[in-house]
Amino acid sequence: MKKALQTYEVVLGFEVHVELNTETKMFSTATNAFGDQPNSNVTAGDLGLPGTLPTINAVGIDYGIKLGLALNCTIAPESRFARKQYFYPDLGKNYQTSQEEPAIAYDGWVDVELDDGEIFRVEIERAHIEEDAGKLTHIGGAGGRIHDSSSSLVDYNRAGVPLVEIVSKPIVGAGGRAPELARAYLSTIRDIVKALGVSDARMERGNIRCDANVSLMPIGATEFGTRTETKNVNSTRAVAAAVESEIIRQAKVLDSGGTITQETRHWEEESRSTRSGRPKSDADDYRYFPDPDLGPIVTDAAWIERLRADLPENPVQRRRRLREEWQFSDTEFRDVVAAGVLDEIEYTITAGASPEAARKWWMGEIARIANERGVSPEALGVTPADVVEIEKLIADKTINDKIARQVVGHIADGEGRPADIVAARSLAVVSDDGALTAAVEEAMAANPDVVERIQGGHMQAVGALIGPVMKATKGQADAGRVREIILEKIG
Amino acid sequence: MVDNIAATAHIALTEEDRKKLAAEFDPIIESLAVTADDQLAETVNPLPVNNVLRDDVVANELTNEQALSGAPEAQDGQFMVPAILDGE
């Protein structure tokens, strides 16, 4: 890629589709859910049956406006829905209900934080509300591909699910950081919609899908080169790889005197490259026209301000604030974000733990057990309040660190809250001098050579006596107190 | 224009069809020409009714059997449609 960047300037553009997590579809009252029996979340309207009329989901509009506000957009005083016609069986109506001009939200921007903390501002052209299409399964062909398939099966459960499509303006100047920017932009959008609560934001389920536009122009040129659009790149890692692969491919074509075909391309994970899809021209005629069955959306200040008051803190700003408050190193903080436990650590600190302790548990034992059981840390069943309670039990010497780690495992097994588990399993540290003294005496009797060495001044040999005592008390002895007793005895 | 509409609608026309349709289109276009006035605002809905929204509550769903009852062909609870990229 380095070589390509000596000759060419990269121009990027992204179209990100976000599925909203409303209860019902955008224009029908069918359930909006993933993974149900095919064609069970449908109304007659979703199938395009005659005599049906669409209705507008009020929550879908609110979510669209919220997302627009979070992207610093202007909210359209008046917008409407339009029919976008195309020939494909994934929508029963033969058109997709979408928005032409104006979109519900337009002219915004979003600050994207790159790995080294540098902020790159991406301008947003528009964010419009539309509906998702049904799911096709191609059968009779090789490997489930559309080519050479004999027929296709259609599930309309997803048809009509509310989408917001976020369209960026052309992004110039990212240069060698274009792949990194692509990844950071997509994660930023994901973080924003997650913080807003308007989408489940699970990329592996296609809740967020990204089309990446890439073109190259000779350095110093002002006219953009021909672009390709790589469709449905569905992970932050893949979008970075797709952008990089497309930059290299286009540079090779241009270097050898060729021209770039304006087309859609598909990202292939196995070969880590894009392959040609269908040619696309700006003149694709979708015969947009305003949907006469749906009335205009007219917003006013009161409506917009009510939604604005509800907006959470911008994720990038929030991360900066938390990093400062918690005093984590860049690496520590980055690991916390990558592990997806930022919220949990924040709640734990709010509940009374120190930042260091909160990080230690969420990045340590909780993450380890979660990883072992194949779930995410927040889904393990350990709550921020549990972590605070465990810390308290350690602080007042009821349990030690090792026992505390076992307690985390027991919480994950559903045995209850920390103090209950410690009581039920008799895990409290043994600091009763009588019991400890007996164990120490036993250990000394069994290891006379060690006693001799300690008496000879080899203080580090004390450890060799603590070990058997801990074993005898099943790890529940207060190690500090054991050491004191040994030294008193040998003294 | 006839060619453009035919291409958009995926309809194959013979030369004879084209001539016939072009002749039929002419009077329609002429009669519409009177509305081609920049001073006229676009009208989509005749009534000034805005923000007709509904609550986000599930209703009127079909069962899978009902949904497929009118399908010419179905398989595994899904609509079956002919090959999409036939010949392309």
Can you walk through the features of this model?
- The complex is a heterodimer of chains A (491) and B (88).
- With 491 residues, chain A is an alpha+beta fold.
- Helices cover 39% and strands 21% of the residues of chain A.
- Chain A is built from 17 helices and 18 strands.
- Chain A has helices at 2-7, 58-70, 178-196, 236-255, 301-309, 315-326, 330-339, 342-350, 355-363, 365-373, 384-395, 401-412, 418-424, 433-446, 448-455, 463-472, 479-490; strands at 8-19, 56-57, 74-75, 78-79, 82-85, 95-98, 105-113, 119-131, 135-139, 151-155, 162-168, 171-172, 208-218, 228-233, 263-268, 273-279, 289-290, 297-298.
- In chain A, β7 (105-113) and β8 form a beta hairpin.
- The termini of chain A are far apart.
- Chain B has a domain at 1-35.
- Chain B has helices at residues 2-8, 15-33, 64-68; strands at 53-54, 74-75, 78-82.
- The mean pLDDT of chain B is 86.
- In chain B, strands 2-3 form a two-stranded antiparallel sheet.
- With 88 residues, chain B is α+β, with helices and mostly antiparallel strands.
- Chain B contains three helices and three strands.
- Chains A and B meet through β2, α2, β9, β10 and β18 of A and β1, α3 and β3 of B.
How many strands of chain A?
18
Q: What is the CA-CA span between the terminal residues of chain A?
A: 70 Å
Structural class of chain B: alpha+beta
Low-confidence stretches of chain B: none
> What would you call the shape of chain B?
flat
Main sheet makeup of chain B: 2 strands, antiparallel
Major β-sheet profile of chain A = 10 strands, mixed
Largest interface, C-beta within 8 A: A-B, 52 and 37 residues
Residues in helices of chain B, as a percent range = 25-40%
In terms of DSSP E residues, the strand content of chain B is 5-15%
Task: Find the count of extended strands of chain B (DSSP E, 2+ residues).
Answer: 3
Global geometry of chain A: elongated
Strand order of the largest sheet of chain B: 2-3
Overall number of structural domains of chain A: 3
Domain Asn/Gln amidotransferase (chain A): 343-490
Family (chain A): Belongs to the GatB/GatE family. GatB subfamily.
Protein name (chain A): Aspartyl/glutamyl-tRNA(Asn/Gln) amidotransferase subunit B
Biased composition (Basic and acidic residues) (chain A): 263-287
